[in-house]
Amino acid sequence: MSSQVYSEPPDGGWGWAITLACFMQSVLVFGVTRLLGIFLVEFMAYFEEPSSATSWIPSVALATMMFASPLAGALATQYGERPVAIAGGLLSGLGYFLASFATSLAQLYIFIGVFTGIGGTFALWPSLALLSRYFERRRPLATSLALSGAGVASLALSPFFQFLVDLYGWRGALLVVSGMVFHLVPCGALLRPLTLPKDDGALAAPQEREESWRRRLSSLFGLSLLRHRGFVTYTCSGVLNAAGFFVPLVHLVPHARELDFNEYQAAFLVSAVGVADIGGRVACTWLVTCGPLRLCHHLTLWTFLLGVSVLAVPLGRSYGAVLAISACYGFLAGAVLPLRVSTLVEIVGPGWIMGAIGLINLMESAGALSGPPLSGWIRDVSGSYTASFLAGGSFLVAGSLGLLLLPGYFSLRTPSPPTENQEGSKLEDPWNPSQQNGV
Length: 439
Fold this sequence. Notes:
Elements: E1 4-5, H1 15-34, H2 36-47, H3 51-54, H4 56-67, H5 69-79, H6 81-99, H7 105-134, H8 139-147, H9 149-181, H10 184-189, E2 194-195, H11 199-202, H12 213-221, H13 229-245, H14 247-258, H15 263-287, H16 295-311, H17 319-348, H18 353-382, H19 386-402, E3 419-420, E4 427-428
Parallel strand pairs: 1-2
Antiparallel strand pairs: 3-4
Helix pairs in contact: 1-7, 1-8, 1-9, 2-9, 2-14, 4-7, 4-18, 5-6, 5-7, 5-18, 6-7, 6-9, 7-8, 7-18, 8-15, 8-17, 9-15, 13-17, 13-18, 13-19, 14-15, 15-17, 16-17, 16-19, 18-19
């Protein structure tokens, strides 16, 4: 499939096929990563390691997924989204396959953490960046549908994974999971490049012979965004959010087991998160079209409430209470991720989204890497997960309040996307008065 040229985003057409591909990628990347908590209990028993040690497995995977995003964006810019996504599917499936033969936690760090982390980001993030270029008016809807795969996976695959572990053990279960994840390859094959007129200045690396390697590197990785005040503020908030967002996904099942719920009751909590996740995405898609509030305002509210829901997890002592709080967390978390992507497009514009996703994920990898292990360490020291969830919720609340510092936050006017001058060396921030005349 050759690249298609449009004068503006088509808001449909082949974009719906890419939405389907992104949905399946979300299932096989985010969805499977969410369910690693089911395996952590088995890893703790088999390797006789504490929670703080096994918590590094999903943390390394998430951090690697974010850390490798700039590389995925640069490769997609240079060679196209399709070959990068296909290569990511192969690497991710290979990681789970090799993990089924692991004899130590260190090997699981490498196979599940590094292999699937790099493979997942190669498969998913270029696809999401391409999706945002196919849609404009329907972008929140398309993004929500694409990322709802993680919620569907939590609903459908949580009891299935627990069944696989009971039937085949964790090694056999990982072998089956690897076969599922290899389906990322045909998902990547569905991607069709899209060219917009604005891409000439924003995405394409200039080919003049006098161009320096520094300018080409900046173009490939979107380094000019580091001078964009709104992007930097948004990234700092995202680091705090990442530190708290993944804590329930990693520790909810072990926490339930410590409350003497059986393994299927604990796994069903993840299913409840998945069901509510889908509802949150639908509600978010509808709410952003109502009223005068901008996307960043919605993101602030939903992230703040998400932090409150994580703070409330230790309050649940009965199964019904824990189930209700888990569903509340899933509903709110379901809205946050598509809102983060759509808000990022609002801040930097679709022409810069490939580099923006890579850079922001690179920065947020620090929070994703430190959050779950820190909460696992707190659990080992305190003897329970109460303080762990309190720490995770506090990070989310702080991250939501950090969004108030975005330039022009209290204005109801949506800023025009930032632009790049003709030489391709300077990113202009529409909220920065000193740059309104290109100075």
